[in-house]
Amino acid sequence: MGVLIEGRWTEGRLPQETGKSGEFLRAESVFRNRITKDGSSGYKAEAGRYHLYVTLGCPWAHRTLIYRAVKGLEDAITVDYLLPDVRTEGWTFGKHPVFPQCGEDSEHPGFRYLHQVYTACEPNYTGKVTVPTLWDKKTKRIVNNESSEIIRMFNSEFVGVAGNDLDFYPRQHRDEIDRLNEKIYYNVNNGAYRCGFAQSQQAYEDAYDGLFATLDELDERLKTQRFLCGSQPTEADWRLLPTMVRFDVAYFSLFKCNKKRIQDYAHLWPYVCDLVAWPGVAATVHPRQYIANYYSIDRLNPPGIIPKGSPVDFTTPHNRASLG
C-alpha cells in the first residue's frame, strides 16, 4: 500500500516488515498517546471530542467499531469510513457505489487520502498510514493508531460518557485475558497475515500450523463455556471476532488458510454467531467489504477480480446461551 517517508508518500513497504526467513512482521504503531477520564494525559474523555478513521474491511479498525457499539459510544465518538478498494496512495476517502458508509473526510474537507491526516499532524512523519486512527478535534492531532490501546481507552476511560458501564477487561480475568490475547494475536489475528504475506514456504507453513493448532484449542475451550473467559464476553472475545468473521470469505482462500473454515468448527462457529448477535455488533459486520478489501491487494490478487459470493450467514441459529 505504500508508506510515508519524511512526509512524502512512497510506494513499497518498510524493510522491517519482512524477517530474515521470509516471515511477515508487523510494524509497530507510532502514535501512542492516551485518553484518560480526568484528562491528566492531556487528552480528556469527552463526548464529541474524538474522531475515528476506519475502513470496514480492516480487522484492527473493526475492534474499535465493536467497542464503539458495545460501550454505547456512537453519539460520543464520530467516525469516517474510508474506501475498501482504492489504494493508489493508501487509504482513500470518497463515495462508493456499493458501500454507502464511505465518504469524504468530515474533519478535513478536501483531503483525499488518510496520509494527509498524518502529515497534518506530523509534517515529516515516516511510517505506515493505518486504520484505526483516533483524531483529537481539540488539539488537531492524532492521539493513537494502535487498536489494542484504543479499545482499552473506550472500555475504561469514558465513564459517564459511554452509554453503559460494561467492563470487558474485568480485574478478576485480566491475567487470563492477557494470556489469551498474546496467543491469539500471534497465531490467529496476525497468524492469518503471516500465512498470507509469507515470503518463504517454511514461514508460511510455520504460521499455518500455529494458526490451526490455536483454532483447535479455542474450539475445544468453547465446548463447555459460552465465551473465552466464562459466561460473559471480554476483550479476548472482541479481539478474536474480527478475524473470525473475515476467515471464510478471505483468509481461507486468498491467504491460503485452507485447512478448515470457521463454519467447519463445532463450537467456534456458533460462538461467532453468538458474538455477532450481541447488541450493536451485527451492524459492524460487513462481509462484502472484507472481500472488496482483501481482493484489491495487488500482490495477493494481481488481476483484481473480486469474487461475487459472500458464503457466510452469521444469523445461523445457535444455542450458546445454554452454556451459561
Give the termini separation. 44 Å
Overall average residue pLDDT: 95
The CATH homologous superfamily of the largest domain corresponds to: Glutaredoxin
* Extended strand count: 6
* Spatial shape: globular
Description:
The chain has 8 helices and 6 strands, in the order E-E-E-H-E-H-E-E-H-H-H-H-H-H. By secondary structure, it is of the alpha+beta class. It folds into 2 domains: 3-156, Glutaredoxin; 171-323, Up-down Bundle (Glutathione S-transferase Yfyf (Class Pi), Chain A, domain 2). Strands 4-3-5-6 form a 4-stranded mixed beta sheet, with helices on both faces. The chain is globular and about 50 Å long. The protein starts with a strand and ends in a 30-residue tail after the last helix.
What structural keywords apply?
about 325 residues, alpha+beta, Glutaredoxin, Glutathione S-transferase Yfyf (Class Pi), Chain A, domain 2, 2 domains, four-stranded mixed beta sheet, two-stranded antiparallel ribbon, 6 strands, globular
Helices and strands in order, then pairings?
Elements: E1 3-5, E2 8-10, E3 50-54, H1 59-70, E4 77-81, H2 114-121, E5 133-136, E6 141-144, H3 147-156, H4 174-196, H5 201-221, H6 235-251, H7 268-276, H8 287-294
Parallel strand pairs: 3-4
Antiparallel strand pairs: 1-2, 3-5, 5-6
Summarize the structure.
By secondary structure, the chain is an alpha+beta fold. It has helices at 59-70, 114-121, 147-156, 174-196, 201-221, 235-251, 268-276, 287-294, and strands at residues 3-5, 8-10, 50-54, 77-81, 133-136, 141-144. Helix 1 (59-70) packs across helix 6 and helix 4 (174-196) runs antiparallel to helix 5 (201-221).
